[in-house]
Amino acid sequence: IYTAMTFLVISCPCALVISVPLSFFAGIGAASKKGILFKSGQVIEKMATIRNVLLDKTGTLTKGRFSVVRIEREPGIEEKELLSLAAGLEAYSTHPIAHSIVKAAQAHNYQLKPFTDVQEISGHGLAGVSGNDHVIIGNRKWMIAKGIPVQGEETWDGTSIYVAVNNHLAGKICIADTPKDDAFDAVRQLHDMGLHVVMLTGDTENSVRRIADTLHIEEMHASLLPEDKLKEMKQTRTERGPVLFTGDGINDAPVLAAADLGVAMGGAGADVAIEASDMVIQGDSLSQLPVGVT
Fold this sequence. Notes:
Number of helices: 13
Structural class: alpha/beta
């Protein structure tokens, strides 16, 4: 039989040449029916080498549907004014947190303040001008970097967004998010495959510890800027081997492009994240990730 097969391959090598890409095409087609898009056959080959799975939090592990649960304002500014300013500036962002603030203002029928000279600083927040006021909205780290005093430690276990007007802290908007319904099972399946699972996020440790504990993710890194996520990915690759990174936002694009395999959540993911990835989960279900890995 072996001699016959050897003779067959020698006499008709095109059959062997055709069978290899054909198997990739079949795999890509089968995956697409399940909502998973491989951009090339090489992605399938690389998948077999993956030893680590790094996951973004917002929009990947969590639903990304935030809601404003509390507003803390400084003396001299009304809640309506604070939320109108914040929502007016956040209207220029596509981040899920920004959408929740805009939605909260609209729910109260507050008029969004108009802005000019708007800048979105990746991993930090937004800045803009409304009338005679220069407004900054973003995370605690950025406020401190801008020299804006932020008193006390962060104790809220959700996400806190700070608002500053003319270099003075005006208030804080507290926002909460919850894990996706299938996130626990997806993480468990990845563990069962022998993969090392890590969560990377720009949120504070207090706000993400609850999510990590719920999903049984032992290693997490919080308060990361986009360049910090890239650094953590490279360090994990050096220490533990090839890395798969999954994310959905603009901030995730550099890591998606640099990882051994980048996987974008296509349901509500940013176009730049989808473009930078090697594999796209066409819906919003994280349970498709272990399916793609297998």
